[in-house]
Protein backbone atom coordinates (compact mmCIF):
# COMPACT_ATOMS: atom_id res chain seq x y z
CA UNK A 1 0.00 0.00 0.00
CA UNK A 2 2.78 2.41 0.92
CA UNK A 3 4.60 1.74 -2.36
CA UNK A 4 1.46 2.69 -4.33
CA UNK A 5 1.25 5.99 -2.45
CA UNK A 6 4.95 6.69 -3.09
CA UNK A 7 4.54 5.81 -6.76
CA UNK A 8 1.51 8.12 -7.01
CA UNK A 9 3.43 10.98 -5.38
CA UNK A 10 6.35 10.41 -7.76
CA UNK A 11 4.06 10.51 -10.79
CA UNK A 12 2.36 13.65 -9.47
CA UNK A 13 5.71 15.36 -8.83
CA UNK A 14 6.93 14.45 -12.33
CA UNK A 15 3.74 15.82 -13.87
CA UNK A 16 4.03 19.05 -11.86
CA UNK A 17 7.70 19.46 -12.88
CA UNK A 18 6.80 18.82 -16.53
CA UNK A 19 4.02 21.43 -16.39
CA UNK A 20 6.38 23.98 -14.81
CA UNK A 21 9.03 23.28 -17.47
CA UNK A 22 6.49 23.80 -20.27
CA UNK A 23 5.35 27.11 -18.74
CA UNK A 24 8.94 28.34 -18.40
CA UNK A 25 9.72 27.34 -21.98
CA UNK A 26 6.56 29.09 -23.26
CA UNK A 27 7.46 32.30 -21.39
CA UNK A 28 11.02 32.13 -22.75
CA UNK A 29 9.82 31.75 -26.35
CA UNK A 30 7.34 34.63 -26.09
CA UNK A 31 9.71 37.00 -24.24
CA UNK A 32 10.72 40.11 -26.20
CA UNK A 33 14.11 39.79 -27.81
CA UNK A 34 16.88 42.27 -27.19
CA UNK A 35 17.64 44.59 -30.04
CA UNK A 36 20.23 43.22 -32.41
CA UNK A 37 22.97 45.69 -33.19
CA UNK A 38 24.75 46.13 -36.48
CA UNK A 39 27.81 43.92 -36.70
CA UNK A 40 30.88 45.49 -38.24
CA UNK A 41 32.86 48.68 -38.07
CA UNK A 42 32.60 52.04 -39.75
CA UNK A 43 32.89 52.35 -43.51
CA UNK A 44 35.94 54.20 -44.90
CA UNK A 45 33.63 56.94 -46.23
CA UNK A 46 30.29 57.52 -44.54
CA UNK A 47 27.12 56.93 -46.51
CA UNK A 48 23.60 58.16 -45.72
CA UNK A 49 22.66 54.62 -44.73
CA UNK A 50 25.51 54.38 -42.24
CA UNK A 51 24.72 57.86 -40.89
CA UNK A 52 21.12 56.81 -40.31
CA UNK A 53 22.25 53.64 -38.52
CA UNK A 54 24.60 55.60 -36.25
CA UNK A 55 21.82 57.97 -35.20
CA UNK A 56 19.16 55.26 -35.10
CA UNK A 57 16.93 57.15 -37.52
CA UNK A 58 15.65 56.71 -41.06
CA UNK A 59 17.52 58.37 -43.90
CA UNK A 60 14.42 60.49 -44.52
CA UNK A 61 14.01 61.60 -40.88
CA UNK A 62 13.23 65.26 -40.28
CA UNK A 63 15.75 67.78 -39.02
CA UNK A 64 14.26 67.85 -35.51
CA UNK A 65 14.44 64.06 -35.09
CA UNK A 66 18.02 64.02 -36.33
CA UNK A 67 19.02 66.77 -33.91
CA UNK A 68 17.28 65.03 -30.99
CA UNK A 69 19.02 61.73 -31.77
CA UNK A 70 22.36 63.51 -32.14
CA UNK A 71 21.95 65.25 -28.78
CA UNK A 72 20.91 62.02 -27.01
CA UNK A 73 23.88 60.07 -28.37
CA UNK A 74 26.36 62.88 -27.75
CA UNK A 75 25.26 63.14 -24.11
CA UNK A 76 26.23 59.51 -23.67
CA UNK A 77 29.47 59.64 -25.71
CA UNK A 78 30.91 63.13 -25.29
CA UNK A 79 34.73 63.08 -24.87
CA UNK A 80 34.61 65.61 -22.01
CA UNK A 81 32.42 63.18 -20.07
CA UNK A 82 34.59 60.12 -20.63
CA UNK A 83 33.36 59.14 -24.08
CA UNK A 84 35.38 58.38 -27.16
CA UNK A 85 36.45 61.29 -29.34
CA UNK A 86 36.37 58.97 -32.37
CA UNK A 87 32.74 58.00 -31.71
CA UNK A 88 31.83 61.65 -31.10
CA UNK A 89 33.40 62.58 -34.45
CA UNK A 90 31.43 59.85 -36.22
CA UNK A 91 28.17 60.95 -34.56
CA UNK A 92 28.80 64.56 -35.64
CA UNK A 93 29.66 63.39 -39.16
CA UNK A 94 26.44 61.35 -39.29
CA UNK A 95 24.37 64.37 -38.23
CA UNK A 96 26.03 66.56 -40.86
CA UNK A 97 25.55 63.91 -43.54
CA UNK A 98 21.82 63.56 -42.84
CA UNK A 99 21.26 67.30 -42.59
CA UNK A 100 23.09 67.84 -45.87
CA UNK A 101 25.83 70.00 -44.39
CA UNK A 102 29.37 70.13 -45.71
CA UNK A 103 31.36 66.96 -45.31
CA UNK A 104 33.41 66.93 -42.13
CA UNK A 105 37.04 65.93 -42.29
CA UNK A 106 38.14 63.35 -39.79
CA UNK A 107 41.03 64.13 -37.50
CA UNK A 108 41.95 60.44 -37.24
UniProtKB/TrEMBL annotation:
Keyword terms, alphabetized: Membrane, Mitochondrion, Mitochondrion inner membrane, Transmembrane, Transmembrane helix
The UniProt record lists the keyword Ion transport: no
Localization annotation: Mitochondrion inner membrane
CDD domains, per the entry: DnaJ
Domain J: 50-108
Main subcellular localisation: mitochondrion
Matching InterPro entries: DnaJ_domain, J_dom_sf
Domain of life of the organism encoding this protein: Eukaryota
UniProt key word Transmembrane helix: yes
UniProt similarity note: Belongs to the TIM14 family.
Protein name per its UniProtKB record: G278 protein
Species of the source: Coccomyxa viridis
Gene coding for it: g278
Amino acid sequence: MASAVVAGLAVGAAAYAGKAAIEIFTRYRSAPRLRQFYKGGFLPEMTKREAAQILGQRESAGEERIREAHLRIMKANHPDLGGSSYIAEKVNEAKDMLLGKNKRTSHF
